[in-house]
Amino acid sequence: MSCVLNKLGQFQDILAVSSFLLNSPSNLEAQSEQKTSNENEGWDEDWSWPDDANEAKQQEERGSNKDESVTKDAWLPDCSVSLSPANDLLVLAYDERVVFLQQKWDPDETEGAGCRYHIIYKGMLNQEEGECITKVLCVPLASQQRSSQGRPDWTCVIVGFTSGYVRMYTENGALLLSQLLHEDPVLNLKCRTHDVPRYPGIAEQTEELSILFPTSLVLVDGFSLFQSLRACRNQLARAHASGTDAIQPPPLAYKKWGLLNQDTTEDQVSCGVITPCAFDQLHTASILGGYSAAIKSHAPVCSRYLSVGTSPFVGVFDAIEGSTQPLMSDVAFAVASKLKSALISAASGWWFRGKQPAEDLSAGKPKVEPATSLPIRFSIPDLRRNGDSIHLAPTNRLAVTTDSFGRVMLVDVTRGIVVRIWKGYRDAQCGWVQVKEDFHKEKSDQNKGLKKKNATFPRLALFLVIYAPRRGILEVWNIQQGPRVAAFNVPKSCRLLAPGYGILGLNHLTVQDSRRQYKQLQCVLMEPSGLLKTVYVPFHLALSDKNSKKARDMHLVKKLSSLLHNRNNLKEPLEQAITPVLLDIKIASYKQQGLNKILATKNVPSMVQLYAMESLVAQLRSQEPNSLDYESQCLLQFCLAQKCLLKSYNGILKINSSEMAGKMEEDINIETLSDTLTMDEEEIKQFQEQITHYLKACYTTKVHFTDTEAFMDTSQFLQCFEVKVEHSLESQEEKDVDTMVDNQPQAVIKIKENLSEDLQSELGVFLFKACLTGQSDVQDLFPIIEQLSVPIKDFLVLLVKTWLEQEETVLKNLTSSCHLYQFLTLFSDASKTSRKDDFSSYIQLQEIIMTSKQVAAALVMSVVIKSVLGMSSPEDSSTQEMETSAAESSVEPESTNNAESAVEITQELDHTWVNILGTSESWQTVVNQLHDVTSLCSLLYTKPHQEVTANIGRGDMVGWTASQDYSVGIQTPESPITLKTLLKGGRDIFAELLGKWVVKHGVSPTYLSNHHAFQRSFSTGSDAETVAMETDANDDKDANDDKDDGQNCLQKLLADILKRLPHSLEHDTIQAHCCWEYIVQWNKAPEATDMLAQGLEHLKMLQNGILRLGVATLMWSTFLAKRVSAGAYLMDKVGKAPKDRLCRKEIGLSDSAFQKFMGSVCDLFDIIQMVEGESPKPPVFRVEDLWQVIQGSTPLMVLASYQQPPNQQLVIVHKQLCTVMQAVMTFMLKSVKPLQYFDGTTKSMFFRELGGSAPTPEKNISLALMEKRQEFVNKLVISSFTNTTPNHEDGAKTPEVIAVSPSVSFMIRFRKCSPASVWPAVAQQLALVWNVDVDMVKRHHSLQLYSLGYDKQAEEVLTTVSENTEIAMQLMEVVGQRLHYIAVDQANDVSVEKLTSVPANLMSWIKTKDSSLLRCPNVPIVDTVQLMGKVVGLLPEHHSLYNKAISLVETCHALAE
Q: How do residues 1138-1160 score in pLDDT, each as one tens digit?
């Protein structure tokens, strides 16, 4: 990549711009004078000879055409041009005329410049006669909007005039403000904007606008200028909206310096704040003050200004910060207050929009403040040299000057000396280009972490751009001592635009908050044709010399990369194009880089790579061996190793091709498998059945996409291998002294250790898949692998990983295990031949197998490895005994956790010791464990049949189904099951996994219990019974339909795993883990309260009482107590059932979910109380001998058994509180505080550990507390019938028969029943516990039933009432209300005739009753007659109402006739 000129934009109409600017009055006067002189010089035409007349005429025409072309192109250097750094505005000015051009995108542009500059304003800006424009400057202002922070908002055009005025305009030519700062012409306008300091500690430079006059320098503060321009623009917009033109701009803060000791000043730059070093401070003080000079503790901070001109050539001025240089804005503001004309002097010399007569302007000219003298500090004197321009570098440490002698000088700003001179550049124009180094993103995570740790600032390269208009050349130089890096031939009348500043109004906060850094223009070349080009310089040009051999080779490497990238467009073959370039590289390291590029490029044919490799090897071998340097020798060995890899790739590709494929063998019979795997035929059949169940469970429900067979690319194949060139030190005993030669480097080929999983998988498939599936012969592949000289251990590990990844493919037919056996046998023999038969490879294989989630493939691999090791085991009997005695210790985690430590142990073993880690006995343990894991995975990956979960919701079971909103399957993510995770998962890991499976699919707890009972009876039965059961099962299976196959398969899988793990999967262990898993999932989704209820169903299935109490206690303390406590205090605070918003905020549940939650909590306390009457036996926890090495956390069963037995007193009081809370939430009761129904001692018991001690309750309960309790139970009875439908209404349905037996549980299950059938009994139980009047509760119960017309149910309750007189009096009121409904509300002729015999006093009593108090007044009269008979029987004969009761009986009988 080299330096280029990129097209930036194009004038839309350059002729319109030039014609407008050149038609100025001064230009027309100059053209008329030139025309008059040409006419006066026509007298010499008569002196030409007649023969030479035509020739003279032709020369004159050629000369006139040349002058016209020069004049046509020479207009641009005479103009004042300014381009905004944001590339949004371009301004050209000539004399008093100016043109504003705005950049716009042109989608139809085909020449590469996508932007066009359109004229948006043109006009004359002079306000005084003879006033001309001397300088223009475009300054973009930062946006204050949050969305575009750090971006330009609009651009201000600053114009300097010969009259000394400085005026500022908007983008459309509207005048913002005008000020007379000095009465001399403006020479130059420059701006300095905010720049982020490169390193911490560097002083931040302030923004400022510098205005140069012949004898003075004005510096306008950037912040004040930014605020004033924004204010003026806002005032101008408001003035236009109101139809006026007057605006009053705010004052600016500026400084005015008088530059002394320099005859003429042409240009200047402001270098910002400079702090001298301590040496310069001491040096200056000693020179000025001598030995007794006083030294300040801190170096003075000063602002430095550099100017160019004559006598001296370069002047350096230092203005010490903190001195009393006046801010001229204060003076201007004071003067403005004294002037009379408000329009002219409102802002001390500021002029507004619109022209005024010349005499008014001259008469009202503002007063110009004098400048403060600033003496020169030091200079670069040259009497004859006249400086033309000076440009400051972006780093503020260098500056470049041009002069009248055609020299370009590089000046050190700090030291004030010239460090470099270029000559031969008359009328030169200069600019700076600063390039930042690009940080390439590393691919590996290791490099990312290292880069982040050692983060550094990007390097910057500074280039100088010089445009020589007389030579028509644009050059780019590397400073300070670097060469010329680029040169371009350009037109001679161009302008080099180098703004050198950015956006005004930025600071370090806005730059940090901006979304991305704004890229500003640095150098732009403007051609007379209207084309703008920007200079692009790559960073690497600052690093190398043109004549460097290293740079040449780098260029060739880049050329080689370009050829490989564009290989499809080459006319010649690829090998003929890239090989000469590769051979032309001189340095060996760069040759290897080029070779690596060829090998790493994708889709390059292997024959092309092999051709380039052989050519490079031939070139290296053509030289004498002694003449090759070390790097060339290493390169030769590297090429030979890569050549070997390429030949192996071609050989493997030939084997895997379609011509060699298709050798798929037929299925091998069971006898062959039995001999290969050292298993009998019955074991082989069971083994096949186990693998079949596993594949059916794991892969039948997955979606498979057919993919085309694509072989591995050459670059990917080579990327998998690592070639290291090292010295092979050989001892003299192994070599003959006469044949010894100088030690040469040797190449070692290995498979990369940090190879990605994708590449590792592709390499394994490319190498072994065809042979494992029987499509090619193992004997054909193994010699090719052996020729690579790669360690057998690497290929062995790769083979095992490939086998595990291709589980579904290789396990479809166990014939592949025979091919695997051949591979392992050949690898084992090869390792013995190479005398590297250590057991470290088998340890690593065991680690890979134990961490694999493809357990069935791992099982087959373990069986084959055990068979191979059994065939190659030593025959010494003593060795066999030692191996057998240590077989069990081979599965300890210390020996399998870290393969590297095991390798070190193996290397340290003496030959007299036997390593048991690689024996067949140790692998037998792994095989047995993998058998259990495979059966477990087969069950866990099987989806139960619908009938298995259909019984959950029947009867009293409350099941969870997948149709609900909260999916348990989502709440329990599946983690891969490996042998290693099981060995570290704890002793209850099997029950835990089975519990998660039950929760995921909602398996009924009764299904598990019934299956366990069947398994126990099956295991204790005789052999004859076993055969009979199997025969019956087979007969039933043949008789059933296909829909029962899934259920039978599930039963078989469950029976198999229960048989393999009888101790780890005991009944209580499984049910406890199912219960715990339901509670855990409910805690993640508290709204799914049915999961909590289902967990309690599993808890009830626990047969051991101690275990049931322990799990219940853990549930209460871990998940339930906190929410119950929050709900109780919330209810007590609000005094009623809380709303949904409060429930969600304080408890984390909705109001409806909280109601169900409290019901489940009450069920939990019921379960705890049920265990009280049982005789619990201590649980026994056992684990199979094969799994005794399991380590991990403490099992749930152990934690539950260690829990203290619940204190029944605490259980009872918590049960009472939860019942009250549930009643409040069920009936949304008001004016109820649950905690007010308990005394202080009882309140102190709440929300404690259930196994803790309980204080003695108070014996004497206050009367007020008893009244509150009585009021609550009565309210509870009444509320339970609120939503009950009356009995004798149309469409009414009679509810279930209410069970009112006093022996029912304290909290009976009522989810399937109506509240009226349950809650009255609950109220009676609460009354019994609270020692309140139970008979009153029963009376309220019976009265509510009679009021609803349920007389039969009321009679059942009535038999339990002990206060007969009281209930009889209340029932008489019910009878009177019913009779009132008949006699008064529903009166007719028949009823009136029947009531004529009723005594008058009785009739008056009936009329006083209110039938509206009854929920069901239209009860059949027969029921009323029976009720009245009950009343008479309950009243004693001597009671005052007995006679009235007899009369009511007669009245009812009369109505019933």
A: 999 999 999 999 999 999 999 99
